[in-house]
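Consortium newsletter contribution from the modelling node. Members have asked for a concrete example of what our holo predictions look like. Here is one, prepared for the NAP complex that several groups have been discussing at recent meetings.
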Amino acid sequence: MNLQLLNNLSLKPYNSFGIDVSAEQFVDVHDDAQIREALHYAEARQMPLLVIGGGSNLLLTRDREGLVMRMASRGVRIVSEKGTQVVVEAEAGEPWHPFVVHCLELGLVGLENLSLIPGTVGAAPMQNIGAYGVEIKDVFHSLTALDRQTGEVRDFLGHECAFGYRDSLFKQHLGRWLILRVRFALSREAALHLDYGPVRQRLQEQGISEPTAMDVSQAICSIRLEKLPNPAELGNAGSFFKNPVIPTAQAQALKVRYPGLVAYPQGDEVKLAAGWLIEQAGWKGFREGDAGVHRLQALVLVNYGHATGRQLQSLAVRIQADIAERFGVELEMEPNLY
Ligand code: FAD
Ligand code: NAP
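And here is the predicted structure:
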């Protein structure tokens, strides 16, 4: 066997919340052969299998029976180049932000607004990661995934992935598709997206009037470093709730009651800033034991050290109930609970 299995391993270093649960067995997989071997190993022993990447979109609520398989495959390559259009492929275990920087260094535009998102390339399509007005669906070419039910490997084009707001086919069928590698359609001269939140203003403050994609990436990194807790210092999984999308009439009625409501059109409906709702309800900075709501960003739940997954989950449930009662709006959790 080529697998280096570890027994009774603490998962604390493998999830950005820093939750201290254990895995009965744990393995890093570096290529397709090891992935198949690990799948066979778990299947032959009828062990539950949890696939993780960077562990930055998980809330672990109990010790894991069975096998935890961490995607550790590496490799980035240009697979086609036509004029200014370039398709880049990356293995699932590639860390996301270094991959973004690598593409920018190659002079490729498209991923800059998604800078500094933790995690891996393979997990990025799971919730169609998005930030500052760009989602990966906007630069997605295709991906290769292994069907855990049949063992078949197949390619998916963008329209086959059911990408939605923090959503995809792969999230809807959680645990079925194992993403092996992802391809991105980038460009040597695409337009930049500067009109979201404080991006343009930050560039102006830096005296940059004609930004490059690298400038945009660096501006976004500086904004994110100011606003978001670094998981290495304070456990968190980024936004804990999705921004709720509600009917326009409901949003208009809420706006009458709460003139400061932060809302954006989203198709025929309206997207509310969940962070604003949670802050209005007085949860910002709340702490009970080691589970809390970040003091600067109410959308982010934090682990001050020894919070358990269950404590964070029960805090999230209390917040959901409070927001439903005050505003009549359902908040959906964004991280995957295991
Ligand atoms: P994990 O947490 O390891 O896994 C997430 C899910 O994907 C799990 O269900 C897992 O089983 C599954 N999975 C992982 N790899 C694979 C694979 N190869 N094949 C099949 N299934 C797989 N998200 C955003 O969208 N935008 C942001 O701006 C953003 N900012 C963040 C900031 C911070 C500080 C943090 C902590 C998180 C943030 N996130 C953001 C959330 C998170 O970083 C992303 O969702 C990221 O893509 C998760 O990647 P991961 O490798 O850590 O996935
Ligand atoms: P922000 O800029 O303070 O904005 C608050 C909310 O308003 C965001 O959630 C954003 O929605 C929305 N918004 C702001 N400007 C908008 C516009 N011009 N059009 C439409 N919607 C707009 O948000 P932030 O917390 O600092 O995060 C900045 C970006 O990084 C956001 O895109 C956010 O989604 C992303 N982010 C995501 C995570 C995560 O874990 N998912 C964590 C940190 C940051 P959207 O969220 O829909 O963009």
